Give the backbone structure.
Amino acid sequence: MQEFAQKLVAPGGLLEGAHPWLAYVPVMLAACLLVFVFVAHAAGIYSWAERRIAGRMQSRVGPNRVGPQGFAQWAVDGIKTLQKEDLIPEGADRPLFKLAPYIAFAGMFGVFAALPFSSSLVIADYNIALLYILAVSSIEAIGILLAGWASNSKWSFYGGMRSAAQIVSYEIPVGIAVLAMVLPVGTLSLQEIVAQQGTNPLNWNFFYSPFAVLAFLCYFTGAIAEINRAPFDLPEAESELVAGYATEYSGMRFLFFFFAEWANIYVISAIAVLVFFGGWQVPFATTDQLVAAGGPIALLLLAGTLLGAGALGWVLAKGQDSPRRRVSIGDNIPGYIISILLGWGPAIGALVLLLLAIGFGVPQWACRLVANVVQVGSLFAKAHLLVFFVIQLRWTLPRLRVDQLMLLCWKYLTPAAFVAAIGNAFWAVYVGPASPLQVTTRLALAFGSVLIAGVFFRRVFKNLEITRSPVDIHLGV
């Protein structure tokens, strides 16, 4: 996006000779709007997915009334929250109380400025992107601390203090773990880190050395704790603090805290993928190869969208997502709306574009666009495997005590992160990239990772088979 704004004011550009701010301001506002739309939808869909996954793990249904399989529940919850009364407790510091949720949200939102989605789709390609992300993400602690202080409630104050101690503490192992991967690659730019990993999955940083695996474990554990996800959700522990720092909040201000939490699930997963798992790189296909094959890929994507979206629209409109009950037109209005948004609308658009592509060919700019779409899909597929794991982890492990939380950080994660950094530095100096030890290590780590992932997903699918029992969805009607 930054390069696009520069091209607009460069010689031959649309705004040639104009002041750079005339291009930067509209482009950055458009980028902020796109990021906000993405974050809003991602956070809402994650909240629905989490409730469905939790229901399946606990042998219950979860949301299943509003829309197909309850998919529209997150949108309805957002609209309902907008209508809630905005209460401010007596004795609260009103300016800070109002400001705190937006500061917490801004910490998450600012990360997206340096978070690449593809080889070309990044708002600002900073050469110190990792340092910027570590710094900006810390702003959330200020918002939570302000919320606890300004609420004039002991439960909120305890929650705010817990969050400040937790986030500040876990930033140390997270930063050192990221540094462990910066040492061998020699750059803080996320785009360069992704480019150096290449298209061969064996060259992913995760398989660089045993110390890289340790660095990933330290980073991911610390990152989950930083965003206050279970089993590290001490700042909002309902069994001890009612809701912690958010106890006195209502309506949209309450939602903004958890809006940031759900969006942060994608943030920490995307950073892990960019640093350790090849980022947006498509296995065995470079950007130039994707651009060269952009025409056939575009036709396949459009044909697949036409068939898939059309079938989805038909199923949703017919109410076949609810086979155990008879669906009336009134009951299935959300299904018809979603069938248009996710089914018939994309299908008609794909049909028009497919006819144009067949009749006039696929232009070069469209081939580049298709290449970036495929890279975005690669990043999303990898990141959402980790998103699923983070959601499942919440409903698997019990919450830690405060002393256990700090013990894990200072006595285990921080020393382990130092070991990973020193080990990776030693490996980079004394083990060559094409040495037999390096090749053997990469193959062994790749085989072990595939084996562990296979066992994990086998257990998940086995659990799905076991818990797939008939459920009376008439309950609560």
Residues 2-281+376-467 form one domain. DSSP finds 17 helices and no strands in the chain. Confidence is low (pLDDT under 50) at residues 320-331, 469-477. The chain has two domains: 2-281+376-467, 290-362.
